[in-house]
Specification:
2 copies of one chain form a homodimer.
Chain A lengths: L1 H17 L5 H12 L21 H17 L14 H9 L1 H28 L7 E6 L9 H5 L10 H10 L6 H12 L3 E9 L3 H10 L7 E5 L8 H14 L2 E8 L2 H4 L7 E4 L9
Parallel strand pairs in A: 1-2, 1-4, 2-3, 4-5
Helix pairs in contact in A: 5-8
Chain lengths: 285, 285
């Protein structure tokens, strides 16, 4: 690969010469404009392929969108309602290319390593007087099951969320498993953790959710918790915190929590450790 | 840029043909090995330049290292002690290229937008009975000041942290300001927030820290809090939580908190909103 690296380096240098510090003043005025707005606006439309080190407007957009995605994962963005239009190609490339899978796999590996360590510690602690039962909480959408086939038809997060359209998709019960999550799920079960599936889906979707999960390889769980009518108006953070508190009150100790939204993981009755799966498509408060 | 894009696309296609799905079986055994270890091990050494879409072993390493960096920013990694060796070139490229600056700028912009909104709300609330004074907490190292010149001499996080060597660097008082943080800092002050500088540096470094901050444009603050001898053995999370609690007890309401470590932001007496600046070089528990 060294040969190819040299070739690309040469191409990169040529491109760098063609427009090295372009957009510095543009950037300053963009920044000023963005300070006054809740999120970045459309500034330029990038072409299909882009490559780090390329230089110019496309690279600027790529950089900004990578920063936007990173900021979302680090919970730095204010509640956001849709992917910034200039970042739609970036988000689509990320989700359909190898990077999304790689990110999912790495988070699952970290969770798995922690689960093994926590299980070993828990076994050692059994000789003590702790009677708590170890538990792991999993979110469902974009955590165990993927709605990527739906979002592929709806701009990968570029379109505003349409509850009725999404519900139709849920009712089909065809969401595929996220492979690395299925592996983690089985491992966590094999290690003896009780598993709680805590989803923002409403109770009306219980049947199809159970069928979908089973068809995709999630055969057993200790409890599947869906939103009751009384939970409808709560934020996901409040609803999920309340449910975690109930789980604790039933004598479980939540050692792990996997979710693609910060609202799966924050609030109160927090898990000993939380794992944030990537999701640049939507934000649930 | 369309011309350049086509050229790169052609190069990319040539490279893609040379090794499309290589490393699938490698990946499986790597994964198995990594499950048993606290963090990824050295697997292959990438060359200098690499480009998304290139294919082959270099792309695999690039993907894994981008995932590792993302996982760190999302607080998914267990406490880690050094950058994985295979990711040292990736981390160096990130820090010395435009991506680190872009990430820093975006986080500062989000913080700035929030500060303006929070200040406007606070002004409106003054007509109520709330007597709390709005405050913002800033970490110092890798948040207001950059130690990149030091880490450039120490493998950008690849070397294990050397307290004595780092202290010598601190004593020189030459850490440059992070430009986007300086802009944010001035804006937050101008908006009327009281600012607390809460650093893990020890009290022995107070003089040089004050000089360094002033020389770099941070002229005023309400309190600079450094680690007292009694704080030495505390984790940063505990030490910083205690200090935030003291700030609250003095009648301040912490509306914003900027830091490059999760231990700057988590624990208790949390800020209304926190901003995690990127740092793939080191982890402080």
């Amino acid at each position: 690969m060294a040969r190819h690296g040299t070739l690309l380096l040469l191409v990169g240098l040529l491109l760098a010469v063609s427009g090295p510090a372009a957009g510095e003043t543009e950037r300053a005025s963009e920044e000023a404009a963005q300070l006054l707005l809740p999120r970045p606006l459309v500034l330029e439309l990038p072409t299909e392929e882009s490559c780090v080190g390329e230089g110019g407007a496309e690279e600027e957009t790529e950089l900004r969108c990578a920063s936007w995605r990173m900021a979302g994962e680090a919970n730095n963005l204010a509640p956001w309602t849709a992917v910034p239009e200039e970042c739609a190609p970036h988000v689509r490339r990320y989700l359909t290319g190898p990077a999304y899978r790689s990110d999912l796999e790495l988070v699952a590996r970290e969770a798995s390593a922690y689960a093994r360590a926590a299980a070993a510690t828990a076994t050692a602690a059994e000789h003590g007087d702790s009677a708590a039962i170890d538990a792991w909480v999993f979110d469902v959408d974009e955590t165990l099951l993927s709605n990527l086939p739906y979002y592929a038809q709806h701009g990968y997060g570029l379109e505003l969320f349409d509850h009725r359209e999404f519900d139709k998709w849920v009712e089909r019960g065809e969401a595929p498993a996220i492979p690395s999550s299925l592996t983690l799920y089985r491992e966590v079960r094999d290690l003896g953790f009780k598993t709680f599936l805590l989803t923002g889906r409403s109770e009306g979707h219980e049947g199809v959710t159970v069928d979908n999960l089973r068809r995709e390889g999630f055969h057993e769980w200790d409890k599947l918790i869906l939103r009751a009518p009384a939970d409808k108006k709560k934020t996901a953070t409040d609803y999920k915190s309340e449910k975690r508190k109930e789980i604790e009150a039933e004598g479980y100790k939540i050692l792990g929590n996997s979710g693609d939204q910060w609202s799966d993981l924050l609030g109160y009755s927090l898990s000993a450790r939380s794992f944030k799966l990537p999701n640049p498509m939507y934000y649930i408060p």
